[in-house]
Every structure is written in C-alpha cells, then in structure tokens.
Amino acid sequence: MAGTRVTLPDVAARAGVSLGSASRALHGTGASPAMVERVRAAAAELGYQPDATGRSLRMRKTFQIAFAVADIGNPVYVEMMTAIQSVVAERGYRLVVASTGGSPQSTAELVAGLAAGLVDGLILSPLRTSPELGQQLTSSGMPVVVIGRTGESTLDTVTTDSAGGIGQAVDHLLALGHRRIAFLNGPLDTTPGEARQRGFDAAAPAMAAVGAQAVECRVAADFTVAAGLEAARALLDEHPGRIDALVAANDLLAVGAIKAAVERGLSVPGDLAVTGMDDTELAGVFQPSLTSVSLRSSERGRAAATLLLERLADPGRAATTVTVAPTLISRESSSTLTDEEVAR
Amino acid sequence: MAGTRVTLPDVAARAGVSLGSASRALHGTGASPAMVERVRAAAAELGYQPDATGRSLRMRKTFQIAFAVADIGNPVYVEMMTAIQSVVAERGYRLVVASTGGSPQSTAELVAGLAAGLVDGLILSPLRTSPELGQQLTSSGMPVVVIGRTGESTLDTVTTDSAGGIGQAVDHLLALGHRRIAFLNGPLDTTPGEARQRGFDAAAPAMAAVGAQAVECRVAADFTVAAGLEAARALLDEHPGRIDALVAANDLLAVGAIKAAVERGLSVPGDLAVTGMDDTELAGVFQPSLTSVSLRSSERGRAAATLLLERLADPGRAATTVTVAPTLISRESSSTLTDEEVAR
DNA sequence: CTGAAAGCGCTAACAA
DNA sequence: TTGTTAGCGCTTTCAG
Questions:
Q1: pLDDT bucket at B336, cuts 50 / 70 / 90
Q2: Which PANTHER family match (chains A, B) (predicted)?
Q3: Which of A28-42, A88-102, B238-252 is least confident?
Q4: CA triplet A32, A34, A40: central angle to 5 degrees?
Q5: CB 3.0-4.6 Å disulfide test: which of A106, A155, B107, B292 passes with A101?
Q6: Are the beta carbons of A127 and A71 closer than 8 angstroms?
C-alpha cells in the first residue's frame, strides 16, 4: 500500500478500459453511467488518488491560491486568512500562506516566485507599497487581489476607510469629554500608518471646535505590542498628566499603551482613555476590554477571496474595488464608568 | 510580458543551445562556465521563470510541505508555523497551511488529499487522534512529523511533557500558599486535554501532602477564551469564595477565567491566582500578566521542521522522538503582591 | 460513447 | 561537455 503510487493507467487497466475513458469517468464529462461505475469501482479497489502535479501541468492550473502578508503574527491577518481559507476551500482551492517581509522589493520577489506556476492567484496585503510593485503586479499577468492600497487602479482591491475610522475614534473620545488627545501610530512609511495619520490630522477641526488639543502624534517602530509599549512609555513620561485620551493606530499598539499606563499607576479609562483599531479578538478579551474601530477583517478577507475567485473565472473582467466601512465598538477602555461599575 | 509564459525551449533557442544544456546550465551540474553564462543571459533577457509544475512532475518533488492544525486561530499554532516556515524556507521549501478540523476522520481525509503529490511532507498537530489515523499516517508512505502524540512509535514525533507542566503549575501555587485549587481543562477526548488532566490528577499527592484540596476539575467546551469564560463563570458561581487558585489548561482558557473572576468582583491574583499554559505572547501582555507554563512552541515547531527535513533527505532512517521540557514562567496573575505593587 | 495519441514543461539518462 | 530523446501523470483533442 505504501510507496507504490497507483496511477490512472493502473485504474484503466484494472477496469479494462482505456486511459482516456478512465479520466473522463472520474472527472470529465461524457462517460456512460456503466463506465463511470466500473472505473469508480476499480479506483476504489486500488485506492487511487489522482496526482495533483500531473493534473496541474496538463490543465495549467494548480488549484492553489496564495495569501501573502508581512506579519502573520498579527491577529488581523490570521482572521483574514481564516475567512479566505473557508471561501476558497469551498471552491476546491487550497491556501498557501506566504510571508512577504516588510519591503516592496521582498514582496516583488515573492510575487515573481509565485508567478512560476505555483498558484493560480494571489491575495496580497502589503505593509509598504511602491509604484514599481503595483506595476509588477499588473504586468505579471497573475490574478491578484490587493487588500489595502497600491495606487494601481487596474487591480482588484479591497479597501477600508481607516482614516475615517480614526476620525470615529476621535469623535467618540470628544463626546466622552476628553480634551487632551494623543495619537500613537505605527511607521508612517507604511500604507496603514500613512492613512491613519491622515485620519488623525483630518480630525483637527472637530477637535478645535470643542477646544480640544492634539497633544502629540507619536510613531512606534512597528505595529506590535512591544513597540507600542515602548513608544507609549516615552509619550506618557514626556507629558505627565497632560494626556487624558490616547488613540492607537491598532489594537496591538493600544494594548502596549494600556500596559504602559498601568505601569505608571494610571487607571484606564479613569485617568486615560484608550482606543484601538482592528477589533481583534484581543480587544474583547483584554482587561480592560478595548474600545476599537472594527475594520471587519473577516469581511475583507471574504471579499478578497470572492473577488479572486471571480477573476479566476473571468480573467477579462474589469478591476473592482470593494470598500468596507469601519465601525467603532465601544468597550471599557474608553467608558467613563468606574472600575467597579465596569466589573459588572 | 504578461500572459505568454516563456519556457525553457524559448531560452534554449535564444541562447542557441539545446534544451538539455539550458536545463543543466540553470539548475543541474556539468555545464561549462561559458554555457552557464550564455544561458543565464538569455534567461534574464526573456524574463524566464522556471515552471514549478513541470519541474515537480518530472522530479517527483514539489518542494512544498504542509502544516496541518485544527485551529489556526490559536496563537500556539501561529508560533509553530512561524518557526516551521523559517526553517523550511531556508532549504527551499514552501509551507502550505491546512486546516484539519477537530476529528480524526477529517484529518485522515486531509492527509489522503495531501498525499496526492501535493506536498513532499507533512507536519501534523492533531487535536484528537485515533489508532486508525496513526495507521493511515504510517501506511500513507508520506514523510510525516507529528507534534503531539499518536501512539504510533513508527512516526517522527515532537512531544512535550504537558502533564508535568501542569504539575509545575500546581507546585508553584502550593508554594505560594494556595490550598483550594480548581482545574479548568479543555475537552478530555483531545490529546492535550487528556494529558493535562493526567497531570492534574498526578499532582494529588503533592496537594495532599500540604493539606490542599482540588476543589473541582471543570471541562470547557473548547480550548478558547469564550469557552473558558463560560466554564469559569459556572465554576466560580458554584463555589463562591471556595477557590483561591485556578490552573487553566492553556492561556486562552486562563484569560477567559480571569475575565470571569473580574466580572465577579474578584481581584487576580489577590482573591484568585490563575495560571495558564503555552506561554503565548498574550500571557506577557495581558492585564494582569499571566503566569504560564511554556511548552516552547517555537522550539517544537523548529524541531518538527528539522526532523521532517532530515527524513526527506533520508527516508529510511529510524523514527525519532524529540521531547521538549516545559518551564513555568511566573508573572503577575499568580504573584502574591498587591495590585499597586504589581503596577510597579 | 470510447480508444488512441499528443503534449503540458521539465529533468535525466543516454549518445555522441 | 553537449545534444537528443524519453517520459513524469494527467486531460483533451481527434478519429472511430
């Protein structure tokens, strides 16, 4: 049973039919019921498993699609991946997860490699983009869906208004009465970093209207808890008692910031309100639970997968952009309740 | 540039050499420097990318390996995956992530599918096993490394002493003076659930020796935060004030338990000490940070990947088992410090 | 509806 | 060292 692979000729021989008939009986169309029955039986008897490689070579199709991200440790991507996986699996595709590294060049290399007949299509969520990358993606001829932005309008894209999401967070904090607001962002040369900065800057009029001030915009080295912790420490130490609310560019930074606040004896939300973004599972679970702007990662993953399947089915169709609206989910980290009330 | 794939014959023609020479010049051995140079140049000129499918079919090798897990949402698996990825990538392999579903049957189906020439090997971390699965794995003839246990000693295996790890957690709590200890486990019909239950049961003598009692062993529906929250609520409500420490079978359950405790106005660790297992990033980051037994997920992933690569290189070698020792990492959730001290 | 045969892109065995 | 050729396992024409 082990080792010796059973091939289609074996099955055909066993069933006493030709190779072509065996193939048609198993996958193709135009075989008589009797033939199908016979071949099926022979295949089952021999424990035949069609060889994916032979099939791929002949059909010029691998039934694999790739999901390429910079940082698979980020729960956002895990969420997207789960969503993508379930959509594509339904249509008989397998998912290959690839790691891009942060830079556009390494992403470009990855795409080139993938284009080598390894996958039928690609869902890409790059942290940093460049015009060249967009170029390469379009010219590679491989079906691609970008989650985020490339500036290349010829590509299928799933976007979300993360800038507007930051605006929602600011509005929320202003409505709760906070007036001295800091912004904790990730690297500005990333797509999300740039967009979220834009969102915070755009909130200036709303803040001015109620006499609130933006105390500082701080940039963490990365969109991670560790980077958020470090940056928030510095931020809080430089403005002791002068910040009453902090908008973080994602949940991981927010968690780092809360940790920094607690280290300094500040209570959250009592002394400092904090909001995150992405509404990862962590947000609902953290202590205190984290107010976060949902960017609907699952939905974006699902949309990207659907878009890719559609393009695979019809390569000539026009590029489509799906936009998903952000929603603020209010939780304890920005409530004005006391800790005891919150505990209830 | 797009669409029309350039193939090896194209390169050979451009370089004015034969197909075979072109192949050898690019990958194989035994080509003159001049030949290599010429072919390289032609390939670069045409933007040649070797086709993975043709190569795989001919070489009977895909350079892909699969990592199959039940629940990719669990940070433990993400950690393993990252480790595996970095090891195998170094040797030119790509990683395919597959989702098994919880049951042995669905795992079996997955393995059968994967065996169809899709991957060269498999790293499997099943939640539930059955003798049949072990059988199938050995007889499939595909190189497999199991992270966990199958009972099949003919398979390469990476294990850890999670039972002993639970013992460490109990000892730790006893040393801190806790005497009424509850155990929050995941499903008992899973490999980790069974092992961790065994570990807690085995700690009975140590507990008896200092006059401590096991208040209850509770089984959550799943190894998730949500299931932990629900189970811990019931547990705490049924034994009000009668539990001073809780051993959770993993970090997710522990986080759920802490949330349940806080809901009930209990302070952690003041009123209830909690320990987790797996030492995920969450443990260090959570508020309060979580004492956890590290099972060295990265190391296990790395070991599994290394084992698999070795087997790929030498299919005939004897099955090896690598065992990784657990270590308790003490943090705030089990400290005896007050919250204020902890904040420092 | 079935059988025969071609060939997807590549590597490796065999000749020269 | 190089060219020629067979063939990996499969699907899909093309005849019959």
A1: low
A2: HTH-TYPE TRANSCRIPTIONAL REGULATOR GALS, LACI-RELATED TRANSCRIPTIONAL REPRESSOR
A3: A88-102
A4: 100
A5: A106
A6: yes
All structural domains of chain A with their residue ranges = 8-50, 60-160+297-325, 162-295+328-343
Residue type present at position A53: T
Task: Nearest chain B residue to A63 by CA: give it.
Answer: B118
What average pLDDT does chain A have?
93
In tens, the pLDDT along B205-215 reads 999 999 999 99
Average pLDDT of A215-222?
97
Average pLDDT in chain B: 93
CA torsion through residues A309, A310, A315, A318, sign = negative
Q: Confirm whether A60-160+297-325 and A162-295+328-343 share one CATH topology.
A: yes
Question: Which uninterrupted H or E stretch holds B78?
Answer: helix B75-90
Residue A275: is its pLDDT beyond 70? yes
- pTM for the full model? 0.91
Statement: A162-295+328-343 belongs to CATH 3.40.50.2300: yes
Rounded distance, CA A117 to CA B168, Å?
A: 50
Rounded Cα–Cα distance for residues A269 and A276 (Å): 13
Local structure of A226: helix, strand or coil: helix
Q: What is the DSSP letter of B74?
A: S
- B3: pLDDT confidence band, cut at 50, 70 and 90? low
Report the CATH number of the B60-160+297-325 domain: 3.40.50.2300
Residue A250 and residue A186 in contact, taking contact as beta carbons nearer than 8 Å: yes
- Test mutation, A26, A94, A281, chain B, max B CBs within 10 A: A94
Name, in order, each residue with C-beta under 8 angstroms of A247's C-beta and a sequence gap of 6 or more: A166, A169, A170, A173, A181, A182, A183, A184, A200, A275
Q: Which helix (H) or strand (E) holds A26?
A: helix A19-26
- From chain B residues 101-160, the ones with a CB under 8 A of any chain A CB are 112-113, 115-118, 138-141
Q: What Å value separates CA B58 and C1' C6?
A: 18
Report residue B338's pLDDT band, with 50, 70 and 90 as the boundaries: very low
> d(Cα B118, Cα B140) in Å, to the nearest integer?
13
Chain A CB contacts of B263 below 8 Å: 343-344
> Is the minimum CB–CB distance between B167 and chain A shorter than 8 Å?
no
What is the per-residue burial (b if ≥16 Cβ within 10 Å, else e) of A144-163? bbbbbbbebeebbbbbbbbb
Which pairs with CB-CB distance under 8 Å and at least 24 residues apart come from A18-26?
A: A26/A50
